[in-house]
């Protein structure tokens, strides 16, 4: 898993530096993340990623829309945590994945600049975090 994480981080850095994704990078990310990557690209294509930043601290989190009909938004910290069921079941409990589709979507959207920016007060951001 450490090697996979290292390769993925290198690819994310390359994408962030150019704000675009090459076919080779898409292929590598698809190999690393499989079906979760495909699902994450759909979320990004549909505009389902928001970065919510607190003012004045500039602390931030991502809200990522799920694919279910309910269109739930999950609080996501791309490198660390997502509030979706899959994160706790497939990653924390079973250790079968290194991250969920929402984390991948947040990383991809941020890397290419395809996320919405939302500013809230630090107090509002804190209230959102209470839901964790």
From TrEMBL:
Q: Which GO terms describe its biological process?
A: double-strand break repair via homologous recombination
Keyword Zinc annotated: yes
Question: Could you state one GO cellular component term attached to this entry?
Answer: Shu complex
**UniProt KW Metal-binding keyword:** yes
Q: Which stretches are transmembrane?
A: none
Signal peptide limits:
none
- The SWIM-type domain is annotated at 62-111
Q: Which GO terms describe its molecular function?
A: zinc ion binding
Keywords noted in UniProt: Metal-binding, Zinc, Zinc-finger
Spell out the PANTHER family in the cross-references.
ZINC FINGER SWIM DOMAIN-CONTAINING PROTEIN 7
The name this protein goes by in its record? Zinc finger SWIM domain-containing protein 7
